[in-house]
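Bench notes, afternoon.
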Amino acid sequence: MNLKRIFSLGLVLSALYACNNEQGLFQSLPASKTGIKFQNTLYKKDTFNILYYLYYFNGGGVSTGDINNDGLADVYFTANHPSGNKLYLNKGGMVFEDITEKAGVAGSSEWCTGVTMADVNGDGWLDIYVSAINGVRGLKGRNELFINNKNGTFTESAAQYGLDKAGFTTQTAFFDYDHDGDLDCFIMNHSQRPHQNILDTSHRKDVSDAAGDYLLRNDVAATGKFTDVSAEAGISQSSLGYGLGLAIADFNNDGWEDIYVGNDFHENDYYYINQGNGSFKESGADHFRHYSRFSMGNDAADYDNDGQLDLITVDMLPPDEKTVKTYGSDENLDIYRMKIQQNGYQNQYSRNVLQRNNGNGVSFSDVAVMNNIAATDWSWAPLFADFDNDGVKDLFVSSGIVKRPVDLDYVRYVSSLYAQQNVDNTDKFDDMVIEKMPDGAAHPFFFKGDLQKGFTDVSKDWGTAKMKGYYNGSAYADLDNDGDLDMVINSIDATATVLQNNAKAATYVNIHLRADSGNTFGLGAKVYLFTKEGMQYQQQMLTRGFQSSVAPGLHFGLGKLTSVDSVLIVWPDQTYQLLKDIPAGKTLLAEKKQAAGQFDASKFLPPITSDWVDVTSNINCAWKHKEDIFLDFNKQQLIPHLQSTRGPKIAVADINKDGLDDIYACGANEQPGTLLLQTKPGVFVPIDVPVFGNSLNYEEVDALFFDANNDTWPDLYVVSGGNMYPNASLALADRLFLNDGKGHFQLASANLPATLVNKSCVRAADIDQDGDQDLFVGGLADATYYGAPQTSYLLLNDGKGVFSIADKSVADLNNIGMVTSADFADINKDGWPDLAIAGEWMGVKVYLNNKGKFKAQELPKSTGLWQSVQFADVNADGQLDILAGNWGQNSKLFAGKNGPLKMYVKDFDRNGSVEQVVCYTVDGKEYTFLAKDELERYLPVLKKAYLTYSEVAGKTVDYMFYDLFKDYTELKAETLSSTAFLGDGKGSFTPQILPSAVQASPIFSFMKAGNGFVAAGNFYGVIPYEGRYDALNPTWFAFGTSGQTKVKQVVHLNGEVRDMKVVKSANGQQWVVIARNNAPLQFYQAELK
């Protein structure tokens, strides 16, 4: 025997074993270990496939719960084939036994979808409700309710309880919507109406028995059945809905559970607010600013530990460069407007959305992109849970589809086939057509949560990145009772996945809830956990993710904490109990019979209030900005975003010296600007209408009150722009209105030089110390050549209000870029006002004033898409800094990119007009932002060069444009983050990125407020693929002495904020007035000291 050889072989085998057993947080257990051999094999029969049933590849669900009350979570799977459902009993040690036949729960339906475990009859034992499809291509089935017999067997009793619905059910949830102590039922169905036939929203009032949703009240105690109360409760039952995601949660913290239905395709998601009187009000448009376009599964949870339930809805956006460039589910702007907006639907975009609850459900902001979770491919089940027990919720997303029917090459192939063959009247092409669909395998995603950094994709580190398949319904539970959450996933054409959690040493607390009868597991109860590191919050609700439900009980990770200060439990009837000094590693059983009193949130939780009080209804001001119908994309098809919707700006001054501030509001094209005189406190009346009414054909983009002629009365300068008119158009002329000393104005057209270009801003300062106010006027963009650097102007005042353009020797402003904003201040304290300017595709520039002569310097690596710039002492060190509002981080142009954003400008196809090609950088490689299908609409040369989309998908811009990629103008944006540039008083600045809370949208305005500043913005003028920026409510922030930041939202305000100013009234009273695009002025009472 060769012992040396055996020893060497042993070392090799040991090494191989170690390599094969390298694992992350999760380990996928084989069926040979678990005994779970379930496979969801798709039912196959003639004329039944993806071509005939659009949800053929949606897969099945999974439910976890302890069906025999032995303390171990069991597992139920639904299948997309007859008699395929399975129930597995947990034997301990991650070993399971198939008891389906013995338990009698296989079901009779041919195609099952969702499953929920709940104690429907209130006896303390979990029952099983299975949703099914009936009537699609001859499928037979109905929803089934398996009542637990408490002996390992179940009795199917759906008809007995009035729950045997037969239609197109995706999922069902049980909750006590009327708080009468028993569980009611919500059944979510989906339409079979061809989604190409898009009807307007007036058809929501129609009723479809098979596709409409149902709310059924539990009247078992009185009648023995559930009663359909859908119509009287305000539940939509039309065939417009394609319900795939269902979340039950108290989003607005009023003590009543609300309903959120995620709808696929064009129909908006439904947000039903519980009115507390047995009815619901669909209120999505009042609280959500946009939705996911193809809503799949969803989950509601407090992901950021602020005591507010947030919401995630998943969609189909691919994360990788190659697949996303062949993905055809976002329409171009014209089709989007026709299908979505003109039919009355809200805005929606094909990507995951993370709807952050801004406080009591008043408004929600989608921050998925900046949290790096917007793209998880063809996704199904999102689930928030603290998988690593660090005290912060993580995110799981199941993903993958057997075939991709929206692949652009496939769509082109099918379109060609339809044109050549009579496909609709035969099935002989079915197999060939399906075979042409690309495979859509993906992996389950894990994202680690962090309260400061957001989410990070840890799929590789946690052990799922190399898995490939079609992962659908999913559920978590602590299957082995070791103090961490494991995962179970239902997969198509593969054995179900069981992921065992191997979390390192970290502490936790489990809370189990129990009531004596009715709602025995306390569904809807809220649990708040308080520790020295903060608060965690969960609401007990079992139906989550996609077609699935989780086991009762709430799991809280504690990180390294050894105890919990207190646990607050609020039951659905608002009785409550408080438990104190809970050691870590415990499972607590909280019983409702120990609860008492009526919960008062103000005694336990921080108040959710707005610092600014809306007093608009008390102000008499009828003016409203009215945006014109001009669309920049019709003129320059490939510009990144609109330039014509930058208004309205406002100017504020006491024009008649009566002690009351007045307002000039800039008008859009075909809307003249308006001078609003404050005649008495809070009453604003338009005056000098004939004078300003002549501005009907101007697009006013900025205005400034200043003393032009040194008579001590405020005069008015109005800037013209709008991106509609070509250079040299008279509609681009700026106007100066002189105050007659009585608060009235006359146009002084002869006092200004001709600056007939598209402009953006105006600022005033005595730049040459001659005792009068000079002006900087920013040049924005050529209306026919976006990307060409524009000239800005320094206008010198002769002391009498007559202006001339300063010589180049004073300030070289020729072709400096596309300026959006500017500001004057003396940054080096030499007594001479310096100038800062910023704009799109240019750096922040500082012009130091040397006795009336300006010398420019650009801050290093500061090129961006800047929208606002302002001097301020941000960090209270006595030196002036620069606040600069950029495009923000909640953008596809930013997320996941690690190099500069670039734009290449050239007449690529030599047709006499220039095109703009925007590219982002990943790992040093540049990729076009738009895919071939959008680029070739306006650059047909690409269509001729590449016949298929896959040829250039995942390829760099130089590859796609081959020999055309030369002789271009290159612009770049090295940062998209809004930034404070901290000054040293000598002209040098150090960048400090502003808090993430204000990175959610482009910032168009800053305003000083107390020891901090308020940022506001939002921007809608982008194509659907980019998705409008609407997440930013006006938000206050401040820098502490040691560099830390404080952040607080000051008010819920929807819309595109363009300006904020303080308006003074009588007796020291003042308001903040906010100007929004295409909206009235808003007035707020605010403490600004």
